């Protein structure tokens, strides 16, 4: 898979990921593969996770200039952040959440993000899927997000954890404080997107299966594997993999019940070959799993399952332990 490169400050070249394998075949008689991939749970995730947690959507370097806009769909809510004249970052709901439609069309109710000419809809794919953004307030498409009035849209909570932009749909001053500053390697970053055909929770479990828990500092779940990779995980959607001289960070965004978009940022000089290989391998493993139990149950996996269960309550079923794992 060839990775996109961008001209703004955050990226100057491209890098390669291992080729993706074919999508997993589904058994038409089985319906949903397990309760983790049900439409009902997806709806609850929108209400109880994406609307109530700090969500990573990108990096400050993606919007370096005044008026730069970074769109992101959080659950079923279209939002954007903008670099303001004083250097701060503002976050708002998009001007029109359902695009130009009076109601949500049937093709947009399947659980998969559609490719739509109206860019700001909470049921369509984001305007900019790469990184950094190329959209500015002066772009003719900006009105899809900003509207035509000078009055700002309804605010969204936003904060920087180091260079990571986090948003909270609960408002400008939600009670939750979010993670402490997140350390990233300095310098320019190369960017990519990867979109495996797997549920986002499956992908979490596949990645965590590769690591043994260790005691790190801060709010991250931390681990280390036999190859020397170090993991920092920030549920619901940020993973950072460190290896000697380089670093790979990934933000996860469900774009379908069994489809997850990963926005990748590669920093450092080493190329992060082990991190890239691990992520591609985990994506393939998550695609081939038929239930969450297939992905094993180590200490890190149990912690994230508990994280989901705490937020989703009795509607979230904990899989029976099966083979796999470490």
UniProtKB/TrEMBL annotation:
The keyword Oxidoreductase applies. Transmembrane segments: none annotated. Keywords: Dioxygenase, Oxidoreductase, Plasmid. It comes from the Bacteria. GO terms for molecular function: 2 iron, 2 sulfur cluster binding; biphenyl 2,3-dioxygenase activity. The keyword Oxidoreductase applies. Its EC number is 1.14.12.18. It is an enzyme of class 1 (oxidoreductase). This is Biphenyl 2,3-dioxygenase. It comes from Paracoccus aminophilus JCM 7686. The lineage of its organism: Bacteria, Pseudomonadati, Pseudomonadota, Alphaproteobacteria, Rhodobacterales.
């Amino acid at each position: 898979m060839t990775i996109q490169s961008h001209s703004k400050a955050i990226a100057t070249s491209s890098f390669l990921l291992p080729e993706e394998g074919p999508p997993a075949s589904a058994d038409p008689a089985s319906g949903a593969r397990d309760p983790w991939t049900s439409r009902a749970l997806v709806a609850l995730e929108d209400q109880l996770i994406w609307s109530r947690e700090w969500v990573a959507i990108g990096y400050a370097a993606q919007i370096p200039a005044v008026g730069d806009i970074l769109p992101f769909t959080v659950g079923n809510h279209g939002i954007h952040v903008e670099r303001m004249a004083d250097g701060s970052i503002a976050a708002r709901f998009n001007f029109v959440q359902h695009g130009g439609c009076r109601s949500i069309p049937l093709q947009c109710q399947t659980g998969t993000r559609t490719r739509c000419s109206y860019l700001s809809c909470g049921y369509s794919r984001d305007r900019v899927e790469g990184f950094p953004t190329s959209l500015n307030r002066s772009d003719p498409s900006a009105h899809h997000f900003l509207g035509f009035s000078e009055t700002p849209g309804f605010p969204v909570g936003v904060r920087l954890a180091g260079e990571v932009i986090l948003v909270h749909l609960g408002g400008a001053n939600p009670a939750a404080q979010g993670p402490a500053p997140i350390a990233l390697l300095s310098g320019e970053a190369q960017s990519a997107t990867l979109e495996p055909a797997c549920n986002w929770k499956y992908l979490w479990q596949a990645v965590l299966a590769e690591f043994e828990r260790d005691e790190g500092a801060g709010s991250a779940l931390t681990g280390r594997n036999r190859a020397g990779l170090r993991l920092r995980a920030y549920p619901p959607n940020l993973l950072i993999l460190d290896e000697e001289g380089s670093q790979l960070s990934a933000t996860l965004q469900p774009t379908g019940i069994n489809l997850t978009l990963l926005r990748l940022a590669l920093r450092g000089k080493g190329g992060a070959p082990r991190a890239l290989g691990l992520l591609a391998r985990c994506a393939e493993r998550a695609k081939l799993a038929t239930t969450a139990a297939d992905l094993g149950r180590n200490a890190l996996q149990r912690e994230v399952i508990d994280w989901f269960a705490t937020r989703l309550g009795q509607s979230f079923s904990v899989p029976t332990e099966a083979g796999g794992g470490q």
